[in-house]
Amino acid sequence: MRSYVHEARRRVGPKRERIVPIIERLAAEHPDATIALRFRSDLELLVSVMLSAQTTDVNVNRVTERLFEKYRRPEDYLAVAPAELEDDIRPTGFFRQKAKAIRGTMAMLLEDYGAEVPARLEDLLRLPGVARKTANVVVAERGEAEGIVVDTHVRRLSQRLGLTRQEDPVKIERDLQRLVPRRYWNVFPHLLIWHGRRVCLARAPRCGACVVNDLCPSSRAEVGTVRSHRGI
């Protein structure tokens, strides 16, 4: 097994030489890769990402379509009983924990940030229920990323592509930050997420249809099935 892994890595070359071609090919293959959550303000972005834990973006969008008509300001989330907010977000799962985190976040926004969503990563991490992944998403969608978002797709594809051997998301992010040029930090997670949804599936990756299979040490594509990569 070890010799197979070594041979696969030798075949595709060093990861530092592969990373930009990987990004460029995925960008050409998924030009629509962007955040799937729907929001109209920084506050709606923050709430959407908080609700997205352990559920799908489609489900979150279905809930927030009505939620954001009812709750427009931080004060609105605190003006109702906790049970009412829980019922409003129930379909997203873990609704009690999420409602508690949202209410705690709204209280801190009012008390410490003038009812505005803070711009700095370190301030976002102070908010109840806001972990590094959530903070990274919010910062990246508002401007220039300060880190690299690591969700289940990013973790799986980063490992398959031989970009990291880590399991912990914080350590994976650290490896990716050393490897991915900063100008790609915003788009890189979206590319892996969409490629993971469409091609590099968890249980049955479609290696024969993958535009980076010749750059991937985990590729199961047979010889001769590598696609044309549109001149890249």
Element order: H for helix, E for strand: HHHHHHHHHHHH
Helix content: 40-55%
Q: What is the total tally of β strands?
A: 0
Helix count equals 12
Mass-distribution shape: elongated
Radius of gyration: 20 Å
Stretches where pLDDT is under 50 for at least 5 consecutive residues are 223-232
User: Structural class, from helix and strand content?
Assistant: mainly alpha
Summarize the biggest pleated sheet: none
What would you note in describing this structure?
- This protein is mainly alpha-helical and 232 residues long.
- It is elongated, with a radius of gyration of 20 Å.
- The two termini are 32 Å apart.
- Residues 223-232 have low confidence and may be disordered.
- The chain has helices spanning 2-12, 15-29, 42-51, 57-70, 74-78, 82-89, 95-112, 121-124, 132-142, 152-160, 169-179, 188-198.
In short:
The protein is mainly alpha-helical and 232 residues long. It has twelve helices and no strands.
Topology (SSEs and partners):
Layout: H1 2-12, H2 15-29, H3 42-51, H4 57-70, H5 74-78, H6 82-89, H7 95-112, H8 121-124, H9 132-142, H10 152-160, H11 169-179, H12 188-198
Helix pairs in contact: 3-9, 6-7, 10-12
Keywords:
mainly alpha; disordered C terminus; 12 helices; about 230 residues
